[in-house]
């Protein structure tokens, strides 16, 4: 029987004894401490001396950090599959992707029936298990449109709502011995989980063959199915006293044939012996891995994950998927996780590959690989950018979302190091205990890397400046794969470019930022009847421009729908806890238009920007028009009002960007717009884009700059980077990225 090439894994099979629950949990922790990969528990709900296995699994998952947890195996007749699907997905989400589903058709039917479940024949039990797996997988497939109708005579759902999806591809392992069950494993399961006490190894070859034949008939590669084995008890000791009762060398000699001849790759030890578990993890596992690696090397056995035929068919021609660096997480079409990473907040995407490095060196590996593939390369931090540059079609996305650490380097100097993949809401929460804050957009789910290198128009902007104004150093992976640090003393031209054009020069992996001393702020949210949008827009802008710098406000407006008038939403932050001064500055806003709703509160800045970590599904391709103006004149307000009245935009927004933003010299950063006081934005659908463009052109005389993140129009580059800035930027790009790996929309000539 062939070796299927699976990586070896080792686990414990613990008794859920109700007489000493603390010891059961302690054995689970000991399993993790010993380096085991998996902790499992038998499931006999009718056994009064046992804890409930599912409750125990959740408790153990909370008490551990790394190990995978599973029932071995869960009793399906007493655990309805629709509820079980949600329970497993929930545990997987809460544990960070550490759940596995071991499941069986049921065996002790007198006891099962005594608990109230219907008694099934062996044949019906197999059918019921197959139906249950279809139900469970269907409910996990939250990306599939429509409700779920699955199952059959024993387990049927009709119109069930799908979800939640687990955090990872939860494997389904089935305990099986008889021919029909083995065939079900081949058709539907991810793993075969027998116990050595019930399996004659002389029959294992035939059992594997039946699984493999069924897999082939179902269009599957048999290597997709992991072979796991419950070993019973064992002990590492100086002299031999029987199977798995002896020195480590004996264990290796006895387990090695199970890998090479019978394909087993996960070994689960029972017996509740902490010393045996420690020896398995610390002595037997490394020795067996070494022996298996040597045998596989000599035999040329392929190892690693196996992709399904459907997944292979979804690959994009021309991309060398097999050349992805080892250890670098890659998500491709056909993977269950692909739907969660293909798109951004707004833009739907269909990349050939999404790479998710965890370290700067892995980012470098990703860049070196991506530049050889001849396809577009996009870089993503939080994926919230509305300009659509964080995904693509048919290209490679380097997603730095896992580089999300937040570290206070020097509290006295207020210097903070932030990973480019962190979300600003998480940054705010991490800095709050230190009495620090960084101005950073208006939504906590926005990623650090994109916002801090493009500009960072935030709700503390008039008081603290742009986010990039506080950047003091950066770590950057350049197009050649080198990892460099830039600050005022090390390649200052690169730091200049990072602050305003970072996506053109490389992949920023971390930023050193000078934070501000800040505790509580005053937040005021006003919702207006915007039936007279021009008056509201102009009056709001005049008040904000004249207000103290502690006040920063964003005004968003939406067109009317039927009898519902246009609405305005002003989000205003006073940087500090002086509520009297805040009220005095904000109170005049109440007279700008009829106020439909108002809310005012003093709260930590972190509470203004929570990070829900919402899943991005790319609602639709959008048209985005932006512009920076020195003042919001009556004419500017009138054009924006016409856009609203004509329903040419889904949203019009104005952001205050004066005050401290304009203290910085224009030549200090690649963001060179230091005279304007307001940033304009309008979003629309593709079919309304031409009409919006026509109206927006009426602002040409007033718009003196463009914020790169807020305009997708191809001819706006001269307004994004003024001539002197563009010339200097091109010189930097020519040096660090002459092939244009990152700057495809910034021609060098």
Automatic annotation (TrEMBL):
<keyword id="KW-0285">Flavoprotein</keyword>
<comment type="similarity">
    <text>Belongs to the oxygen-dependent FAD-linked oxidoreductase family.</text>
</comment>
<dbReference type="InterPro" id="IPR016169">
    <property type="entry name" value="FAD-bd_PCMH_sub2"/>
</dbReference>
<dbReference type="InterPro" id="IPR011251">
    <property type="entry name" value="Luciferase-like_dom"/>
</dbReference>
<feature type="domain" description="FAD-binding PCMH-type">
    <location>
        <begin position="347"/>
        <end position="518"/>
    </location>
</feature>
<dbReference type="InterPro" id="IPR006094">
    <property type="entry name" value="Oxid_FAD_bind_N"/>
</dbReference>
<dbReference type="InterPro" id="IPR050416">
    <property type="entry name" value="FAD-linked_Oxidoreductase"/>
</dbReference>
<dbReference type="InterPro" id="IPR036318">
    <property type="entry name" value="FAD-bd_PCMH-like_sf"/>
</dbReference>
<dbReference type="GO" id="GO:0016705">
    <property type="term" value="F:oxidoreductase activity, acting on paired donors, with incorporation or reduction of molecular oxygen"/>
</dbReference>
<dbReference type="Pfam" id="PF00296">
    <property type="entry name" value="Bac_luciferase"/>
</dbReference>
<dbReference type="InterPro" id="IPR016166">
    <property type="entry name" value="FAD-bd_PCMH"/>
</dbReference>
<keyword id="KW-0560">Oxidoreductase</keyword>
<keyword id="KW-0274">FAD</keyword>
<dbReference type="GO" id="GO:0071949">
    <property type="term" value="F:FAD binding"/>
</dbReference>
<dbReference type="Pfam" id="PF01565">
    <property type="entry name" value="FAD_binding_4"/>
</dbReference>
<dbReference type="InterPro" id="IPR036661">
    <property type="entry name" value="Luciferase-like_sf"/>
</dbReference>
<dbReference type="InterPro" id="IPR016167">
    <property type="entry name" value="FAD-bd_PCMH_sub1"/>
</dbReference>
<protein>
    <submittedName>
        <fullName>FAD linked oxidase domain protein</fullName>
    </submittedName>
</protein>
């Amino acid at each position: 029987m062939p070796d299927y090439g699976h990586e070896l894994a080792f686990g414990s099979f613990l008794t859920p004894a109700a007489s000493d629950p603390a010891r059961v949990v302690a054995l689970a922790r000991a399993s993790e401490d010993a380096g085991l990969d998996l902790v499992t528990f038998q499931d006999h709900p009718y056994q009064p001396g046992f804890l409930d296995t599912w409750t125990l699994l959740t408790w153990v998952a909370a008490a551990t950090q790394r190990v995978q947890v599973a029932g071995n195996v869960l009793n399906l007749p007493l655990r309805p599959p629709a509820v079980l699907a949600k329970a497993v997905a929930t545990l997987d989400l809460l544990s960070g992707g550490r759940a596995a589903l071991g499941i069986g058709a049921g065996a002790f039917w007198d006891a099962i029936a005594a608990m109230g479940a219907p008694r099934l024949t062996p044949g019906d039990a197999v059918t019921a298990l197959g139906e249950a797996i279809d139900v469970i997988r269907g409910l996990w497939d939250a990306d599939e449109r429509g409700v779920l109708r699955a199952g059959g005579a024993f387990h049927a759902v009709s119109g069930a709502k799908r979800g939640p999806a687990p955090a990872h591809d939860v494997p389904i392992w089935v305990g099986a011995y008889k021919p029909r069950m083995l065939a079900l494993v081949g058709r539907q399961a991810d793993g075969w989980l027998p116990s050595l006490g019930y399996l004659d190894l002389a029959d294992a070859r035939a059992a594997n063959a039946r699984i493999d034949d069924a897999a082939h008939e179902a269009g599957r590669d048999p290597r997709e199915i992991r072979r796991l084995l419950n070993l019973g008890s064992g002990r590492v000791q100086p002299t031999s006293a029987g199977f798995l009762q002896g020195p480590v060398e004996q264990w290796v000699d006895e387990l090695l044939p199970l890998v090479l001849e019978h394909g087993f790759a996960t070994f689960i030890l029972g017996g509740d012996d902490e010393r045996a578990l420690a020896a398995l993890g610390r002595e037997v596992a490394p020795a067996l891995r070494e022996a298996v690696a040597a045998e596989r090397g000599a035999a040329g056995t392929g190892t690693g994950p196996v992709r399904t035929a459907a997944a292979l068919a979804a690959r994009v021609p021309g991309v060398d998927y097999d050349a992805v660096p080892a250890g670098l997480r890659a998500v491709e079409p056909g993977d269950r996780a692909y739907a969660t990473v293909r798109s951004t907040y707004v833009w739907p995407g269909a990349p050939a590959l999404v790479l998710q490095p965890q370290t700067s060196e892995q980012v470098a590996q990703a860049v070196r690989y991506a530049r050889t593939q001849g396809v577009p390369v996009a870089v993503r931090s939080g994926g919230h950018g509305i300009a659509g540059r964080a995904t693509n079609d048919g290209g490679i996305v380097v997603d730095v979302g896992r580089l999300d650490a937040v570290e206070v380097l020097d509290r006295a100097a207020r210097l903070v190091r932030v990973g480019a993949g962190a979300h600003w809401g998480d940054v705010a929460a991490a800095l709050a205990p230190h009495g620090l804050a960084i101005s950073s957009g208006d939504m906590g789910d926005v990623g650090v890397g994109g916002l801090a290198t493009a500009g960072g128009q935030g709700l503390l902007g008039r008081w603290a400046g742009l986010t990039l104004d506080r950047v003091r150093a950066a770590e950057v992976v350049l197009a050649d794969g080198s990892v460099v640090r830039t600050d005022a003393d090390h390649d200052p031209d690169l730091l200049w470019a990072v602050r305003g054009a970072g996506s053109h020069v490389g992949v920023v992996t971390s930023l050193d930022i000078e934070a501000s001393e800040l505790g509580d702020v005053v937040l005021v949210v006003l919702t207006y009847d915007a039936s007279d949008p021009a008056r509201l827009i102009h009056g709001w802008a005049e008040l904000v421009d004249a207000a103290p710098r502690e006040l920063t406000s964003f005004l968003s407006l939406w067109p009317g729908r039927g009898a519902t008038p246009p609405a305005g939403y002003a989000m205003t932050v006073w940087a500090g806890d002086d509520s009297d001064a805040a009220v005095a500055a904000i109170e005049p806003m109440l007279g700008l238009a009829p106020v439909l709703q108002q809310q005012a509160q003093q709260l930590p800045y972190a509470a203004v920007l929570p990070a829900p970590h919402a899943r991005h599904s790319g609602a639709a391709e959008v048209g985005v028009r932006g512009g920076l103006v020195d003042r919001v004149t009556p004419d500017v307000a009138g054009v924006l009002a016409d856009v609203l009245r004509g329903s040419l935009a889904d949203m019009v927004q104005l952001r205050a960007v004066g005050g401290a933003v304009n203290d910085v010299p224009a030549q200090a950063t690649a963001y060179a717009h230091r005279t304007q006081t307001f940033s304009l934005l309008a979003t629309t659908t593709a079919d309304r884009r031409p009409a919006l463009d026509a109206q927006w052109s009426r602002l040409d005389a007033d718009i003196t700059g463009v914020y790169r993140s807020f305009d997708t129009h191809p001819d706006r580059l001269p307004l994004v980077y003024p001539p002197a800035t563009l010339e200097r930027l091109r010189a930097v790009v020519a040096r660090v990225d002459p092939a244009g790996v990152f700057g495809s929309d910034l021609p060098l000539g």
